[in-house]
Specification:
By secondary structure, the protein is an alpha+beta fold. It is built from six helices and seven strands.
């Protein structure tokens, strides 16, 4: 049986990705996240993404998702240092342009970002990786597609939780967790 998952490549987020971020700010892509951001918020987010990609690798990374073989940028994904339930973890999140959804792009990119997070942790790169054994995703409870990506990428559900996103707004989300430890790679 042929693998239907499209090949993707993750490329570090750069100054040139501002327009991609604007395209990902569409109402249909941000409905589960409190709606589109203002231009000022987008400029700040873009700066955070660029800075994260230039910082200590242990702090995480943001990437543009590139669909192969065309080389077309189709979304964003990343992982970043976070504290959840008093535990140092990585968090991940993604967005894929509407014309490329439903084709396995988000799942392929999530699997690739898991590999990146594992490699960062396994190499002990930077101070931020110390003790970050788990990667979490927090899709809205009613975001069927993103919850399916978590399941397909190997995350385990930990139940529903309230999560503040964007700041000042509580959303009901599912807490998905993936073990980045060495033994988890063999399972």
């Amino acid at each position: 049986m042929e693998n239907a998952t499209p090949p993707v490549r993750l490329e570090p987020w750069s100054e040139e990705d501002a327009e991609l971020l604007r395209a990902l700010n569409a109402p249909e892509l941000t409905a589960h996240l409190g709606g589109p951001e203002t231009e000022e918020q987008l400029v700040r987010r873009h700066r955070r993404y660029v800075d994260l990609s230039a910082a200590d690798p242990g702090a995480g990374r943001m990437f543009r998702i590139v669909l192969l073989p065309e080389g077309t940028p189709v979304g964003s994904i990343g992982f970043w240092a976070q504290t959840w339930d008093d535990e140092p973890v990585y968090e991940t999140g993604w967005a894929v342009l509407p014309g490329f959804q439903g084709r396995g792009v988000a799942t392929a990119a999530t699997r690739a970002v898991i590999t990146e997070a594992r490699a960062t942790g396994a190499q002990g790169v930077g101070n931020a990786t110390e003790g970050r054994r788990y990667l979490h995703a927090f899709p809205s409870s009613d975001n069927t597609a993103s919850n399916a990506v978590c399941r397909k990428a190997g995350f385990r559900p930990r139940g529903e939780r309230d999560f503040e996103y964007p700041p000042g707004r509580l959303m009901r989300c599912n807490d998905w967790r993936l073990d980045l430890g060495p033994s988890a790679q063999e399972a």
